[in-house]
Design a protein that fits this description.
Strand order of the largest sheet: 2-1-3-4-5
Distance between the termini: 48 Å
CATH class of the largest domain: Alpha Beta
Order of helices and strands: HEHEHEHEHEHEHEHEHEHEH
Number of helices: 11
Helix content: 40-55%
Structural class: alpha/beta
CATH topology of the largest domain: Rossmann fold
Mean pLDDT: 82
Shape: elongated
CATH architecture of the largest domain: 3-Layer(aba) Sandwich
Strand content: 15-25%
């Protein structure tokens, strides 16, 4: 017996075909697509600094603000987590390792295990540069290590190095855990920051608060079609281009997607080479 979830996906699959003009009335919603091309503004990146030493917080803040960054400050990991929860514009975390109660390793684990924050790179700082601690921090996902005491040159060189490795944020909107994990692994290895969402509503929430370079989504989600998501995003919150994962039942083509305002399809089964090629083509077109 079909489940409620499968019935909804069947409904949105039919809606998708109507939107593409393949079924039903020609008064498809694709006629209402308004690809609003808002100019991308280059906003200053926001860095969260977590350190229980007030002098270290003040020094790092002064250096980074003088270089054009925005900063948020926290004296405990608990406060840092609260800032991450409330501020969607955090682009980088710099955290001390040795702190009372929760330490920097706890913060790294929090970033790695939470899909909402897993794309945010972290630099760890410590007066103890013992190889075991550095290795553990790297294993937990730290992007770089900063020895204390630090000066402006050492801090800024690491911050800029981390940002230079990043090619932009890609929002991945997939229900399937395995396919989502493969996309995240492939794109992360290529230098992209990844934000993941399971539904269209979650994706719109991300787009409302974050600058995204590209969206890769399924054509049929549990709460809307991929075209619904694209139209709402491009009409109200974001001008990010969309790539879609082909739906084996709907049987749409690249031309169908392009005529609806998207940038094309990624075929199944997923191929690392195909994914990276299409992502690079879209990014080059929009750069």
């Amino acid at each position: 017996m079909p489940t409620a979830g499968s019935k909804m996906k069947s409904f949105y699959r039919k809606m998708l075909l109507v939107q593409l003009g393949k079924e039903g009335s020609q008064q498809s919603r694709r006629a209402s697509i308004d690809r609003k091309c808002a100019q991308d503004s280059v906003a200053a990146k926001t860095i969260l600094i977590i350190d229980d030493e007030q002098s270290a917080l003040e020094l790092a803040s002064h250096i980074l603000v003088s270089d054009g960054f925005r900063v948020r400050l926290a004296s405990t990991v608990k406060d840092g987590k609260a800032i991450l929860q409330s501020d969607s514009e955090i682009n980088l975390v710099i955290t001390d390792l040795r702190m009372p109660e929760e330490d920097g390793f706890s913060l790294l684990e929090f970033l790695r295990e939470n899909l909402r924050f897993g794309h945010i790179p972290a630099i760890v700082s410590s007066c103890c540069s013992h190889q075991d601690k550095v290795s553990r921090a790297i294993e937990l996902g730290a992007a770089d290590f900063l020895s204390k005491p630090f000066n402006a040159e050492s801090l800024l060189s690491r911050v800029h190095r981390v940002f230079e490795r990043t090619k932009g944020v890609v929002l991945v909107v997939f229900e399937d855990d395995l396919q989502r994990s493969m996309l995240i692994r492939t794109l992360s290895t290529a230098g992209f920051e990844i934000v993941a969402a399971n539904t269209g509503a979650q994706a719109l929430s991300v787009l409302a608060g974050k600058s995204v370079r590209l969206v890769i989504a399924e054509l049929v989600l549990e709460d809307m079609t991929g075209l619904d998501l694209m139209m709402e995003a491009q009409g109200t919150t974001s001008a990010a281009p969309f790539l879609f994962l082909n739906d084996s039942i709907a049987r749409v083509t690249d031309d169908d997607i392009r005529s609806a305002g998207g940038f094309g399809l990624i075929d199944r089964p997923l191929s690392n080479v195909d994914i990276l090629h299409k992502v690079k083509v879209v990014c080059a077109t929009r750069s």
